[in-house]
Write a structure and sequence with these properties.
Blueprint (H helix, E strand, L loop, with lengths): L12 E2 L4 E7 L2 E6 L10 E5 L6 E2 L4 E7 L2 E6 L4 E6 L2 H4 L3 H4 L8 E4 L12 H8 L10 E6 L9 E6 L2 E7 L18 E8 L6 E13 L2 E11 L7 E8 L5 E8 L6 E5 L7 E7 L2 E7 L10 E5 L7 E8 L4 E10 L2 E10 L7 E6 L2 E10 L1
Antiparallel strand pairs: 1-2, 2-3, 3-9, 4-6, 5-8, 6-7, 8-9, 10-11, 11-12, 13-14, 13-26, 14-15, 15-16, 16-17, 17-18, 19-20, 21-22, 22-23, 23-24, 24-25, 25-26
Length: 372
């Protein structure tokens, strides 16, 4: 490993888990990732950071960054509280690697006591610590696994050589995919443009995260959706309630823009699964496509989705671009024709990047994320 004087800037402290810390005074500090955590100099595709107000616990993981083919856990060097996180990384996670001591910083914390910084390395100590690869002599090799009741696999595993963490892994929950689940915060907004095959003019909808709420016993995000750039002012808007753990839809409120006290609610009684349906609606058939929860793995897969009614549905998941993009496809035979729905997710985006629906070889819906 080649080091230069620029690797450890003056005025910073360093942890043994590849983090740097800059004391801002009054119990506050800025934390970032050393580029030594990226031995191949690879790209960073995604950075997962905790929300403001979250506690940090010394030695425990508080987030991670995804590299090409690997994930690096961020371990807290002290007890503290998240005061600020670097939202630049939501759009440019690569700054963690290209500007680790500049725009690529991770979080700011507060609630630090002076002794919290005493266990960190200064520049000279960091140069010595990181200037060699530790050998086996005089060091203990220790492996650890943690099992939780009802889990099919160890919840966490680790391998340490002395005090140096060599390998760490964790079991992703089957109910969600934290790598692709959007990192929402109250006030986030994005716009989606939708083009229907039988309507010439595209329609644009704006979504806004309004906060959290408990609906049907589930912790949910409350999201407001309203049409913008409409030819006529919309008569109503929608409030959507998404489960926080897997972003499946729980309920929808249709609220009058004329009198907000007037609204109608529809519950998603299908739970967390996919469903495609064709039914008579006015002059034509209405096809409803609801994607299931996003998968937890990062391997291409195809599976049949149990929906409890016809038609049978097959879900196909593909990962692209170093697992930074995920394609979720649903297929079914409806009325003698193949119905296909596809969504493309990218890490760090607040919503799917684009989506399409094709029936009998003809595209009936095309949608894209145009802002956000």
């Amino acid at each position: 490993m080649k080091l230069t004087g620029l690797d450890f800037p003056e005025g910073h402290l360093y942890s043994r888990d590849y983090l740097w810390v800059r004391d801002l005074g009054e119990g506050r500090a800025r934390v970032g990732l050393q580029f030594h955590a990226l031995p191949r100099g690879g790209d960073v595709y995604f950075a997962k950071l905790p929300p403001v107000g979250s506690p940090l616990e010394r030695g425990r993981a508080f987030g991670f960054v995804d590299l090409a083919g690997s994930t690096f856990e961020l371990r807290a060097p002290f007890d503290a509280r998240i005061a600020l996180r670097n939202d630049v990384l939501r759009d440019d996670a690569g700054a963690v690697a290209t500007a680790p001591f500049g725009d690529g910083w991770l979080v700011e914390v507060d609630g630090l006591a002076p002794e919290d910084l005493k266990g960190l390395l200064d520049r000279e100590q960091a140069l010595r610590y990181y200037s060699f690869i530790p050998g086996l002599a005089g060091k203990t090799l220790a492996a650890a696994q943690r099992f939780d009741a009802g889990r099919p696999w160890p919840s966490t595993t680790s391998l340490k050589l002395g005090d140096d963490l060599i390998v760490a892994s964790r079991l992703l929950p089957a109910a969600g995919n934290e790598a692709f689940a959007p990192d929402w915060a109250t006030g986030d907004r994005w716009r989606v443009r939708v083009k229907l095959a039988d309507i010439e003019r595209p329609r644009t909808y704006e979504y806004e995260v309004q906060g959290d709420e408990v609906v049907a016993g589930d912790d949910c995000w409350r999201v407001r959706a309203i049409e913008v750039e409409a030819q006529f002012p919309p008569q109503s808007f929608r409030r959507l309630f998404f489960r926080k753990d897997d972003l499946t839809l729980v309920a929808v409120d249709d609220v009058s823009t004329i009198d907000p006290a007037l609204f109608a609610r529809s519950e998603n009684r299908r739970g967390r699964e996919a469903f495609l349906l064709e039914r008579a609606a006015g002059a034509g058939d209405e096809i409803i496509v609801d994607h299931p929860r996003m998968p937890a793995g990062c391997d291409d897969e195809a599976r049949d989705v149990a929906v409890g009614h016809e038609p049978p549905i097959t879900q196909i998941v593909r990962f692209r671009a170093g697992a930074s993009r995920m394609e979720v496809e649903l297929r079914a035979e409806v009325g003698g024709e193949r119905l296909v729905s596809v969504q493309t997710w990218e890490r760090g985006r607040p919503w799917w990047k684009d989506a399409a629906r094709v029936r009998g070889g003809e595209e009936t819906v095309r949608a894209e994320l145009v802002q956000g």
